[in-house]
Amino acid sequence: MKNSKWNRPEDGFTLIELIVVIAIIGILATFVVPNVMGRTDQAKVAKVKQDFKALDTQCKMFRTDHGRYPDSIDELINPPADFNGFTHTYLDTEPLDPWTNEVYFFEIIDGRPVFISLGEDMTEGGEGYAQDLYSDDSNNQGRY
After folding, report:
1. How far from each other are the two terminal CA atoms of the chain, in whole angstroms?
2. Cβ(55)–Cβ(134) under 8 Å?
3. How would you write the pLDDT of the chain (144 residues) with one tens digit per residue?
4. Parallel, antiparallel, or unpaired: how do β-strands 112-117 and 133-134 relate?
């Protein structure tokens, strides 16, 4: 009797092969998952720092064009015309705090713009990931 194309013994995987592959995936997962879990807060801190660098750069560009720092983040999105009558767009949209998806706090401190994220707990003060993050590094104390 001829083997039909559906009954050939070389087709498919054996149960042993499937068990070995599942075991290998399980072993790899035991090493990868613990290293990835709990990194979300570290990623949020990195995003805040990157946003602060970008905002600081845009504020410096605004100062070059207008002779002053912006009064708000909104002024970076909808800036006035510069000395020559040109309007430059510094930001398309306002970056959002990764913990709340709300805008960062903005203050002028010692004549310079400072951006603030209140951290994981969204209240002033705190330690660890609940610590406030400032764009001028005044409160970060190198903890992250």
Report:
1. 72
2. no
3. 555 566 666 677 889 999 999 999 999 888 887 777 767 888 888 999 999 999 999 999 999 998 999 998 889 998 988 888 888 889 888 888 998 888 898 998 888 899 998 888 877 877 887 788 898 865 544 433
4. antiparallel
Domain spans, the chain? 40-134
What gap in Å lies between CA 108 and CA 84, rounded to an integer? 26
SS3 139: coil
Residue at token pair 């909104």: 74
Structure tokens at 27: 């072993």
Query: Which superfamily, per CATH, for 40-134?
Result: Glycoprotein, Type 4 Pilin (3.30.700.10)
Place of tokens 């310079």: 112
Whether residue 91 contacts residue 103, with contact meaning beta carbons closer than 8 Å, is answered with no
Q: Encoding tokens for residue 52?
A: 């602060």
Global model pTM greater than 0.70:
no
